[in-house]
Amino acid sequence: MLHFPRPFPDELLGSLVVRACRENGLSHKELVFSLANVSGTYSSIFLPSYVRQLATVTKIDVEELVYAHSAFPYIVSFMANDLAARLKALVLSRVGISGGSFHSLTQSVTNGVAYRRLCRHCVQEDLSRFGTSYWHRSHMLPAVHYCAKHRQHLEETRIAVRNFGRLWSYCMPHEVKGTCIDFGLPAWVLMEIACRSGVALEKHVDYRDCWNDEYRRLAEDKGYVTPGPFIAGRQLAYDIRAAYGPDFLAHVDCTYPKERNAWPALMVRPCTKGPFSPVKHILLCTFLDNCSSGLKLVSQIKCGRKPRDNFKLDEQLSKRVEAGLRRLRKRLHLLTLTEFMSECSCWSQYRHARNRLPKTASLVEAFKAVCRTNKAR
Ligand SMILES: [Zn+2]
């Protein structure tokens, strides 16, 4: 007879499965077979596909199990109401465990969480309170590197969350070491991301069809406006990358090579269809709520052709014209300005910028004076 433990507060279903394997002396594969009489693991630690079987053995309602111990509420937290409802029905009605898993559904989490994470303070607390530590779901969300409860940096282990089969880890947090990753972000930013992610994890209601209008208003209030009727989305994308840093954005799978059509710009555009992953909503809101309110200078982005350095160009062209005046001095009066400047190899550059090239222009005047003098003779 299989003995199945009860989940602890904030414990991931994958962590509960690890404890069940250890208590029953079974491998993950053997445990799944004893639960569902089917070979295969089909499991993400964030939302195992055999959640109905887990509900039966733990004697906990399947919806309660999914909302209190899986990443599902976080995954759908910013989705439109009908999509969230459809996915909820899909997860709760799943009977068999074969025929695929919930891997695609959990991608918005697994893409931003490569390795299991832990809070050393939570580990000590859990050990003294429950006799064991366990993997917390609030610690294993994208961009969350801070324990909101203890206001401490999380440690990242080398246990990959995508490992299945033979590589499935049976370790509990108190048995492993981890390191804190320093992205150079202030503690209050990490704390705010952790708190917002925690709110998303607790969410059951208030799903919206579209977030763009709200973000657009927020961006306008913070000065992300252009002279036209547009939001300065590219500048917003530029500032978000500068605020979080490219390393952090790459770590949470939110990087973008160019500001144009980057996710921050798309999220404030009126007609963009989502859904965007929850971490993008959280990073955008955290930035917009905390950035300064002044009108933003839409000038920091280098794009298109570089502006011409007129001083440098004036120096180059004036040297050529000076040389031309000397070289062609005997037949200057026979040349038109166009012919003379073409001989000096600077007509096309000069004619488009003559008002910004004072030194060259004065030499052109010298050429014209020579011509006038010769014609007068
Ligand atoms: Zn903690």
Write up what this structure looks like.
The protein has 377 residues and is mostly helical. It folds into three domains: 163 residues, no CATH class; 95 residues, no CATH class; 67 residues. Helix content is 47%, strand content 4%. α9 crosses α14 and α15 packs parallel to α18. The longest helix has 19 residues. The protein starts with 12 loop residues before the first helix and ends with a helix. The site of zinc ion has 7 residues, from α8.
Task: Indicate the percent of residues in helices.
Answer: 40-55%
The percent range for strand residues is under 5%
What structural class do helix, strand and pairing data support? Answer: mainly alpha
**What summary fits the major beta sheet?**
2 strands, antiparallel
Distance from N terminus to C terminus (CA atoms, Å) equals 121 Å
- Quickly count the helices: 18
Strand order of the largest sheet: 1-4
Total beta-strand segments: 4
- Judging from the principal axes of the Cα atoms, what is the shape? elongated
On the 0 to 100 scale, the average pLDDT is 87
How many discrete structural domains?
A: 3
Keywords summarizing the entry:
377 residues, mainly alpha, 3 domains, two-stranded antiparallel sheet, 4% strand, binds zinc ion
In short:
The protein is mostly helical and 377 residues long.
List the helices and strands and how they pair.
Blueprint: H1 13-24, H2 28-36, H3 51-58, H4 62-69, H5 72-75, H6 81-92, H7 107-110, E1 115-118, H8 120-130, E2 146-147, E3 152-153, E4 155-160, H9 187-201, H10 212-221, H11 233-244, H12 246-251, H13 263-267, H14 278-290, H15 310-327, H16 337-343, H17 347-351, H18 358-376
Helix pairs in contact: 9-14, 15-18
Bound molecules: zinc ion.
Zinc ion binds next to helix 8.
